[in-house]
Structure formats: C-alpha cells, structure tokens
Fold this protein.
Amino acid sequence: MTTTIEPAGGTPLVYQCALPLSRQTLTFIADLLRAHLKKIGSRWRKLPPGKIALIVLAALRHDHRLADMAGGNGVSASTISRWTWEIIELLAARAPRLDRALATITRQGGEAVLLDGTLIPTRRRSGTANRSNYNGKHKKHGLLFLALTDQAGNLIWISSARRGAASEITAARRDHIAGRLRTAGLGALADLGFTGLDPDPEDPVIITGYKGHPDPQDDPRPAPGQPGPVRCPRARRARLQRPQELAEPHPPPHRPQQGHRLATRPARPHPPAHHPLTDDHDLRPAAPTSPSTTNPAHTSPPTSQFRLEQSHCS
C-alpha cells in the first residue's frame, strides 16, 4: 500500500489579536495611502486602504511573519512586504526636517528643547553585519535614534535610523545639531552622553552636566599631603541653626573648647616612677601604714582596707 503525504486542504485557521493603537492612527495612515494611490493613478488594490493599513500596522507592531499575515488575509507575503515599505516611505516623507522643527519652536516663543537618544531593539543579524547593530551600552542589538522634544515633552523631531554600535554624540555631530540650534537661537538640555558636543564652550547652546569638577579650585578633595575635610558620621544629620544661633556663634556640643575640658575635668594624677603605667591599682592613693603592719606577712581584712582608703580619699 502506498501512502501519499499531502497538505491538509481547506482554509487556514485564523485567530484575532488586539492591536494597541488608536483609531486616529489607523485613519491617518489610511488617508495617506488613499492620497498616494490617487496621486500615482492606481485603479485598484486587492484590499481596501483601511485593511492594508491595519495589516501593515500589525506587522510592524507585533513583528509577525509575513507568510502568516498573508495566509490569514488571502494575499502573498511579497505583497505585504511591498505594502509595508510603501507606508514606511509615506510616513518618512511627512517627518519634519530639523531646521523646520526648530523654526516652529522659535515662532511659538520657545527658548530651549530637550535632546536625547534611544535604542530601538531589533533582531540579531547574521554574518559580519552582526556587530554593527550591537550596542555595548544596552547590551543588545538595535538601531539608534536621536529625538528632540519641546519643554512639555512633545516630540518635534526624530533622526534617521543609525546602526546600534554608533554613539549618541557622533550621531548628533553628523546631524549638525549644535549649529542648527545656534542658527535658530535656541538652547538644548542633554545628559552626560553629549558632553563636548558644543564646539564653543564659552557660549554653549547645549547644556549638559559635568563628568568631573570643572575647576581644580572647586575640587573638594584635598591636595596630596594636605589633611582631608572632617566628615560627620553617617548616622548623624545636619541641623539647621536658628537666626539667634547664627547671630551669636558658639561651638557645637560635640566639639568643646580647648579649655573647657580642663576646667570641668580634673587632671589625672601621675603615677610614681617605680610603678608600671599598666597597673590600675597603683593609681589609687596608698593606705596609711602603722607600726603594726610592718610585717610583710600581716595583711588587714578587705573591709578595713576599704574603709581606710575611703577615709583617706575624703
């Protein structure tokens, strides 16, 4: 008997998946596609523009296989790939240019923008192109983007995609961000990754933090051979002084004056020269001797010895 292995017939199984995007996003992309089809004179597509926009957004958002998306919608995988790149080009053409975005902020009365970079994770590439997209800072593969936002945090410009191994400051130099900001009369706030981006440190337009102390005179660390600053224990906390205390300064309670200890605490008596300094019993005043206690073998009871010492001390 011969067994023939054939694929199962019938329609494929289709399941539904939620897409976390708004209806406005779908309508915006569908309108872009309708205007593009009217411009190029395309008479028909296998699916309506709204359905094409939904398939492309699902492919971009969930990263499904094109063959799976094609089997569930009755088209080929190459058709979905062509639709995807077509919509990507339409969205990229509407992206604002850097100089126009900065001019818009200037007309609105803005004075500064926020500059930052982000890494969009991607899948690992094969071959020699693997290392070009690997970012050592985030320890993953991806594409690097620079973004500008206004003071309220609204996105006004985003750069083109660069390889993940590139640094943020290198990407900013290639986009000439410092020069365009100076031309528009705006400033920018950035993190430490953009330190040194502004070519004019005397009149900077990009403000960043300091990786170290800008002036050696402001360095709190002591010079070699000099005593360091006195640091309080970690358990203690600083106490704000009242105006009366500031008007009449006085030493803190944990730092008495130089003569305060000598006035309140008696000096320790010096032991005799023939006694060792480590014997604490020799520091007590000696008991008075009598002719009856000249015998070395004779010792008084502990009670009487204590009374004699107490009376002598008093």
